[in-house]
Design brief:
The complex is a heterodimer of chains A (about 80) and B (about 300). Chain A is mainly alpha-helical and about 80 residues long. Chain A has helices at about 5-15, 40-50, 65-79. The model of chain A has no long low-confidence stretch (mean pLDDT about 95). Classes of the chains: A mainly alpha (about 80), B alpha/beta (about 300). The interface of A and B includes residues 29, 37, 46 and 61 of A.
Chain lengths: ~80, ~300
Amino acid sequence: MNMNMETRLTHIFHEVFDRSDIVLKREMTADDIAQWDSLTHIRLIVAIEQEFNFHFSLAHYPQLHNVGAIMDIITDKMA
Amino acid sequence: MIDTFLSHIYARNPGQQKKIGAFFARVPEARTALGNFLTAYNFLWETPEIGGIAGLAAAYLHVLDEMAYCRVQFTRTGRYPCTSQNAVKEQIYLNSQQMLPHILGLAVSHYLWPAQYQLLEFYKQCVNAQNTSGRFLEVGSGLGIFASILANHITAKATIDIVDISPVSIAFAQKLLLATNGPATQQMRFIESDIACHAAAEPYDFIGMGEVLEHVESPSQILKTLHGLLADDGFLYLSTCANCPAIDHVYLFHTIEDIRSLIHDSGFRILRELIAPSENKPLEYIEKNKLDILYATLLEKA
């Protein structure tokens, strides 16, 4: 796993959900983070796009509900 | 059926469980209404084009993804993704691959989203306040849910013209209404047309136009057309939205006041209105953060 990417993504989760205790796991979804709702979901996507300097395509959106899938897309975009 | 439908949604998008679960806990009659909706139109879901209850859930999830995509773009640019009505017509309204999941997802959202549910209830109240005979016009039928409410309201002396720019919408609305309001369809005309081009021999006593204004480049032109089509003592039900990015939304209303001004400038008087933010937040927060606000109103000529 790309530790730099994971560290940056963890920081985004802490900022967006205003919680510093979140430890990212690949299987994590909105079920695991109480603050992950439709509003924070948009803020999360915007923050990831800004941090990693790319835009998700519409085809990515069905996968953006799972931390592992988000990590895979970022890794793919950074390659 | 409702549990199967919801489990399809929650499995793919866990965030929906929180949102829909909280809504149904607060408004249990919405869950009942969803169950009735799913059962009543099961014959539609089972058609090959839709693919059963799983296909309906997939259509809803597709609309959610599209809306999130457009919302992210809107956050970035402050604009809707498309500014050309003709481009949207070509890419979506005339394209059944795009249009069918779109109208299905939006139809089911009336039972899953608090603001859309409020809108549906407001529409029923507006229709129930009308005479049961006369000339009715429904603009922008979608799947035909609102037209079905009109069909249930009228007596044998009434007529309903249903106008939609999309052949997909007209075909499905006709299919839905034939199956659920069979006899009343003798009093209906299904017209595939841009409302801006629609002409009528006599004025209408009631016009319903839900969520059309944001799809056109010139809402004032459409309201002018409706003003001409409405009887002097007739009523116009209208709904639209502010800051509501979607793949087929063209005209951006920034505030509810923008919509009210357009209504007044178009020669209408507001009789009653509904302001329904898409999120459970104070209106000030919604406006400041440019989040979706649904707006519905019953109008008469000024």
